[in-house]
Design a protein that fits this description.
Layout (H helix, E strand, L loop, with lengths): L1 H20 L9 E12 L2 E2 L7 E2 L5 E18 L4 E3 L6 E5 L9 E5 L1 E10 L3 H4 L28 E8 L9 E7 L13 E6 L7 E2 L6 E7 L17 E2 L5 H5 L2 H4 E7 L1
Parallel strand pairs: 1-13, 10-14
Antiparallel strand pairs: 1-2, 1-7, 3-4, 4-5, 4-6, 4-8, 4-9, 8-11, 8-12, 9-10, 13-15
Length: 264
């Protein structure tokens, strides 16, 4: 009887241990909301359109009058290694500094704790070449996406920043950076699509669960557009549109974006 007792106890202990390990607070079959906030800044200051004056790495003062950019194709990886791709039809957002309602897009993803965030800065080639009937909402060039589109072969303007600077030789001291190019449809062109990936564990992994608010807070520093991998001078390049130099500007995008913190 004593031997049977020990076997039974071991069995109970093993069973209890297994039950505890499988007890997860998340249900991957349930979708929950995760907001991703895009907070535009200039160095240590909040970006203020039309009124704020900032200095870039070349010592040039500038004021931003417009800032818009597309983010799309979000993918989040769970701490268990499972990646979730947000469905494309609900995964294109136009961040407009002048419209606060656009700063915090909401993703619907399975419950869980996530370790990485990935998204595209721009609009992918597949969506750029789809029939216009499939490019609605912020992708509609005649509607919400007005002013963010060139023609079929050039496609969407991924990043649009305009402003003034005493360093600019253009009339009115204007500067214009309209950066796009997805590789081309009718012929090969510039490809400035950038995919950005962030480790969320360093500043708080989002714990996404139905009924609670979870927010990933991103900071986007416009000063770093001038001083990442490449140094961009307003005096030398006050207007960058669909040309070869645009790839130098696009090369700085990865340095502009950082994960600041997560609110669980």
């Amino acid at each position: 009887m004593k031997q049977i007792f020990f076997i039974t106890a071991a069995t109970v202990i093993t069973f209890s241990s297994c039950k505890k390990n499988n007890d997860s607070p998340y249900n991957s079959n349930i979708k929950a909301d995760l907001s991703v906030e895009f907070d535009n800044i200039a160095g240590s200051s909040d970006l203020q359109l039309n009124t704020g004056t900032y200095a870039n790495s070349s010592g040039e003062n500038f004021t931003v009058t417009k800032l818009k950019y597309y983010v799309s194709n979000f993918v989040l990886t769970n701490v268990n290694g499972t990646a979730y791709t947000v469905p494309q039809d609900s995964c294109y957002f136009l961040i407009d500094e002048a419209d606060e309602d656009t700063h915090e897009p909401v993703l619907h993803i399975p419950e869980g704790e996530y370790k990485t965030l990935q998204f595209t800065l721009g609009v992918d080639s597949l969506r750029s070449t789809m029939d216009i009937s499939q490019r609605t909402g912020v992708l509609d060039p005649t509607g919400a996406g007005a002013g963010m589109y060139w023609d079929l072969n050039s496609g969407y303007i991924f990043f649009n920043m305009e402003g003034t600077s005493p360093a600019s030789p253009m009339p009115g001291n204007y500067f214009i950076y309209h950066i796009g190019g997805y590789g081309g449809y009718l012929s090969a062109t510039i490809n400035n699509i950038k995919m950005l990936t962030f480790d969320l564990t360093q500043r708080g992994a989002p714990q996404v669960k139905a009924g609670k608010e979870t927010n990933i807070h991103m900071m986007i520093d416009v000063i770093k557009m001038f001083s990442g991998t490449n140094t961009i001078s307003i005096a030398t390049h006050p207007e960058v549109l669909f040309d070869a130099f645009s790839s130098n500007v696009a090369g700085n995008f990865v340095d502009m974006f950082r994960h600041d913190h997560t609110e669980n």
